[in-house]
């Protein structure tokens, strides 16, 4: 007879899960948000039943410690982000994935996931001052290195390429020494009297889109050198000095300006007369006399304390006056001159003072001339009949031993009226030449006639 045997082959867990790829390569930008899907893995197991069922898990990660950035679904094999990526920290992640079935004993298959992080322009450039040589002397040569700077950008590629510039563009510039290093150098000559300190800004901009910028401020003070000589506002000064004035009397006070600072701008005065070393006060060492001459010319020298010392000169013209002229000068020109000898910066105040000085002198002179004219007119009018009346004119010359200013010879005409027992005398400047010698003497009345009037 025959027999039909049905043999059922029971499945044994003799097949491990198999991935369709040994290595999965994935790229994600570093600004990917949390929950972003990296990859969906696919594995199969030809066994049946429980031997066919398996689950996915992350076994390890490289670098170690970054495993918490990823989460895998044990059933679907989906890997998602649970944190934020940073290209500048880790730009390549490698995950070891395992698929383990539920057979006895369980079998497993493996694959790896390589995640490449793509750089984004999320880092601005950084500028650091590594060396600074300040203050810079104002006579420093063009090309002098003022500071060394280091520039970097953590991004890569175009995002990490940095272009640097300096503002303001003058008088400093940047020179690239090697990758990431710059020198701040002097491009133009300095002048401390014009600008004593510079606020320089170094600007850095990367090549990303949009580009990111950074800036670093550098304060550069300029030190002074003695490159300016003292200067008077005018080259010549004129003052009036009274004859027989007291020794030590102040003639004038001069001012000179030096734009340098500290010792380079401290000036001292010197001259043939007594001159205040730091005040500029010019005074007489003794009383001035007529024998000293009517005019003195003093050369005043002013020197600063720089190295080397610089100097300037001014001429002080001193005119010797006496008597009424000195009084008149004291009223107008002398006081104005002494007040006007203070030199201010820029010379504008001195020019204004000199204008007022001229106006004051003209005003005083006009008033004096008007007073003389009025006085002469008042004295002349009542005596017109005497001048036109009969009687010879008598010419009288004043002696040199008189009280006339400067002891000069003066002539006056004395007219005597006939008839009345008493008459007034009037003295005035002659407007006709004196009569010739003998004839004049014959026509003159006797001296007693002068006494009778």
How do you describe this structure in short?
With 453 residues, the chain is an alpha+beta fold.
Question: How would you portray this structure in words?
Answer:
It is found in: Cell membrane. Residues 429-453 are annotated as: Disordered. The chain crosses the membrane at residues 355-377. GO terms for molecular function: calcium ion binding. The chain has 453 residues and is α+β, with helices and mostly antiparallel strands. The chain folds into 4 domains: 18-118, Immunoglobulin-like; 126-223, Cadherins (Immunoglobulin-like), CATH 2.60.40.60; 232-370, Cadherins (Immunoglobulin-like), CATH 2.60.40; 390-452, no CATH class. 15% of the residues lie in helices and 37% in strands. It contains 6 helices and 29 strands. It has helices at residues 323-331, 333-340, 348-380, 384-388, 437-443, 447-452; strands at residues 18-19, 23-29, 37-40, 43-44, 54-62, 70-72, 78-81, 92-101, 108-118, 126-132, 136-137, 145-152, 162-167, 172-178, 181-186, 197-206, 213-223, 231-232, 236-242, 250-253, 256-257, 267-270, 274-275, 281-283, 295-304, 311-321, 393-397, 411-415, 427-428. The strands form 9 sheets. A 4-stranded mixed sheet has the order 2-9-8-5, with no helix packed on it. Helix 2 (333-340) packs antiparallel against helix 3 (348-380).
Task: Describe the structure using short key phrases.
about 450 residues, rod-shaped, Immunoglobulin-like, transmembrane
Portion of residues in beta strands equals 35-45%
Q: Which architecture of the largest domain per CATH?
A: Sandwich
CATH topology of the largest domain: Immunoglobulin-like
Q: Whole-number radius of gyration?
A: 55 Å
Task: Outline the low-pLDDT stretches.
Answer: 324-350, 382-453
> How many domains, in number, for the residues?
4
Number of helices: 6
